[in-house]
Write a structure and sequence with these properties.
The structure is a homodimer. With about 110 residues, the first copy, chain A, is mainly β. Chain A has no helices and nine strands. In chain A, the strands form two sheets. The first copy, chain A, has a five-stranded antiparallel sheet, with no helix packed on it. In chain A, strands 6-5-8 form a three-stranded antiparallel sheet, with no helix packed on it. Chains A and B meet through β1, β4, β7 and β9 of A and β1, β4, β7 and β9 of B. β7 of chain A pairs antiparallel with β1 of chain B.
Chain lengths: ~110, ~110
């Protein structure tokens, strides 16, 4: 049993988001995502086959669901359940601090 | 899609730990636990049928695994995988601040 840390990150800014699988079974995948200012490309939506429970642990982000006018602002500790096929996009993530997400994809 | 917050708690001290199921399927249960200074009663061990991935999100705690001399100190962001039947106990939780855990029990 090794203890690791969800918030420990390399501090240099990254061009790309970092995806790290923490735990995986045949029914779910627990993933840590680190964003450094990235957003979903203009005009694109996530349209996922799997359900996703996602929490924001540090930083902040704007999460837009299709059909809504304004993104929901997510702050540390906030979580939301995104059902399979519910189209959404990340409008923005904090440009100045790392945004750490914990995502549980399940099916 | 309602956004809720993992860290939002009622602030008054509690005699008992609070357990809240956030998400449940036939293969896992995602749970938030709030401790306010509690520990596993003396001489008792958790001996769980299910695997548990657990993260500490706020506060701090000492987690002792059977056969180890000293508890591991868990700070915010720390996580650990506790396999089924791995006996362990919570030696202490922060008496002055709420300790928020996120536990994923799976089987």
């Amino acid at each position: 049993m090794e203890i690791a840390n969800l918030l420990a990150t390399r501090m240099e800014p990254k061009r790309e988001e970092i995806f790290e699988t923490l735990l995986e079974t045949d029914r779910f995948r627990l993933e840590r995502i680190i964003s450094t200012g990235q957003a979903t490309p203009a005009g694109q939506w996530y349209d996922q086959e799997k359900n996703e429970w996602v929490a924001l642990l540090s930083g902040s982000a704007g999460l837009l669901f299709e059909g809504e006018r304004e993104p929901r602002v997510m702050e540390p500790g906030d979580y939301v359940l995104i059902p399979s096929r519910r189209r959404h996009r990340v409008e923005w993530t904090d440009p100045d601090h790392e945004t750490v997400w914990l995502a549980l994809h399940y099916w």
